[in-house]
Amino acid sequence: MKHQKMSVRRHPDTMHVDTEVARSRYGIRLLNRLAACAVLALFVGATIAACNDDDDDDDNDNDNGEAAMQMFGDWQALNPAVDEHYEPLNQEWVGGMGIHWGVDGPHVTIGVGHDDQVTLVELIVPAADGWHPWFDQDENEPVDLGFGDVYTQHIYLVEQETIVEGEPATPLEMTFDALEEENPALVHYEQTSSWVPGMGYHWAPVGGPSIVLAIGDEGEIHAFEIIVPESDGWHPWFDQDENEPIEIGGDDVYTQHVYIVPPESID
Domain extents for the chain? Predict the structure, then answer.
């Protein structure tokens, strides 16, 4: 498949009947019935094909044509490291977020709401690493989450105001445009790579740590990623083996991808 630059906004196939039978009156009636059946079969086949086409177009939708929920159990099945290593980081519900799941070390934090619904992804950055305009806090106003001053970046996958304990939240389409509408800081994002098999196009802001988006040709989200300098150390939930970093932009780094679609489906 030849991939072009993705189209989302930048800032990112006669029934044969025996003629002897057809000569008789009975045969004529039989022929007519068979012909009618053939037409009906063609109609049903076309209808089924059309429905299948609609299903292909609406992978992000549920049976009601609404955006499908992202479920934490599905994410665990797609991402063995998440299933193996992640645990709740807080026991009490956090308003507008849910329960945070993660690990001790750099990672993609996952917000989980009512009945296993994923509400958000988050990156936590030490304040000493500097501030960037896509962070949640204003410059020079970090927060203390119990392990020093940090800045955070949340990307909501649902309408934030609908994250209420005991109730399902309203999911967003998993496309860049839909996420940007709910997360205005994504205006800083732009395409940072050509097509990468099993990932897609990478989109991120230039110049600092962020949650990187892996995006398809039509703007659909494939995965969330973080990039960690080798000097920050290795962790078992990273994509690479220990002491086997990869080079990105001249730097040796480790990565963590959290997929929301099977990687083998990204071609």
Answer: 19-57, 72-265
